[in-house]
Amino acid sequence: MTTATGSLDEDVTIWLTPGHADRGRLIEDPYPLFDRLRDEAPVYKSQPGPWFVTRFPDVLQSLREPGFSRDASRAMNRHLGSASGDEPLSEDAAERLFETWMLYRDPPAHERLRRMMNKAFLPKSIERWSARAEEIALELLAPLRDEAEFDLLDRYAAQLPLRIICEMIGMPSDRAADLAAWSHTIVMLQEPGERTPEFDAQAKSSLVECFAYFRELVAEKRRHPGDDIISILLESEHAEANPATDREIVGSCILLNVAGQETTMHRISNGTLYLLDNPDQYRALRNDLSLMPNAIEEILRYSSVNALPRYATRDVRFGDHVIPEGDIVLPVLGAANRDPGYFDDPHNFDIRRPNARDHLTFGNGIHYCLGVHLARLEANTALTVLNRDAPELELVDDTPRWRDTFTARSLQRMPVRWAG
Ligand code: HEM
């Protein structure tokens, strides 16, 4: 484990500055910085501006605080130079994508969007996908059995959530690669920091293409409804006083993929990495797959999204501090999940940890992950199939390469080979 060497302000500034020469050490291992923040300044106003909240109870409180808004759409759209008005789907409207996301809306708009989509994500709706998820995992695994070496992230962990969400949305599988590319661009749009004009131009054209595709798909589902999420949302035209607009349906499809794919694929690959790094636990799990549900919770605890931005819509008292209206607040889930006041020996990966499931990796409050049952099902299926139906794996490269992102804890690649 590397150690944080700068002052708190220096390290936080480096962490928030993409491209900083010293950022690599914090991307590789942000946990010493999270520990220092939690110990020395649990509610901390950083020099660049955002407040960092790092203790478990404070992170929980900040996720539930009605005075903290998740509405990031205005800031995002300013960045992309958006148009105003509520015109029909167009290039300008594509730039206003984030306004259609429940994730970035406050009540009452949030509640309306969430209610319309909720039906597809109830436990009984998700349970129906269990056999299909296993079928896909086995299909993905089959060709890998003959390969000497492969990227587990790209060939397996990424493909299962992608294929499931395509099927749930009602999207043909031959467009899955496009969906993955659009989602990746949108994920990168949400990273803090300055972006190049080239990136913005590429992001805009990617969003326009994505919107055009989904607009067409929505029109098709209106003509021929199916057993899919777009058709469920279209049903709201009959059931709701204020039904989802086409723009909201398109935005919701994109949100589902963005929220569901990268999060899940990286938990599957990070989880495999932690298991390979802990051979005793890896073997224990392979010998007794009933340990899997708790192992998944420990994987989620150990490798959450780092932080989820909010901003104060009024002055909010937080312990000894008052967070003024307009300030950005970062509840650091990655720090809460390793709070020693809550989890014993928190930096230790332990698939038998009794309270692993208490993690905050799915958030809390009104934005609590809508896809929580699907995420658990996908992670469970992917890791069960991999550990039940295939030989042991080993890492090709012992040094994991983490992606240079602030919000996520994600590997760039995960080259592996079959052991023995
Ligand atoms: C292991 C995988 C996943 C993780 C770690 C995860 C994590 C999260 C977190 C932390 C939030 C709350 C964000 C906030 O409060 O700012 C969230 C919200 C959300 N997630 Fe997930 N998620 C995962 C998988 C999924 C899947 C598979 C889907 C659906 C396909 C999904 C759909 C959503 C949606 C729609 C929201 C917004 C809910 C709202 O605003 O009310 N997630 N997720």
From TrEMBL:
Pfam family, one: p450
Gene Ontology MF terms: heme binding; iron ion binding; monooxygenase activity; oxidoreductase activity, acting on paired donors, with incorporation or reduction of molecular oxygen
PROSITE patterns according to UniProt: CYTOCHROME_P450 (PS00086)
Coiled-coil regions, chain positions: none
Keywords: Heme, Iron, Metal-binding, Monooxygenase, Oxidoreductase
Family per record: Belongs to the cytochrome P450 family.
Protein known as: Unannotated protein
Originating species: freshwater metagenome
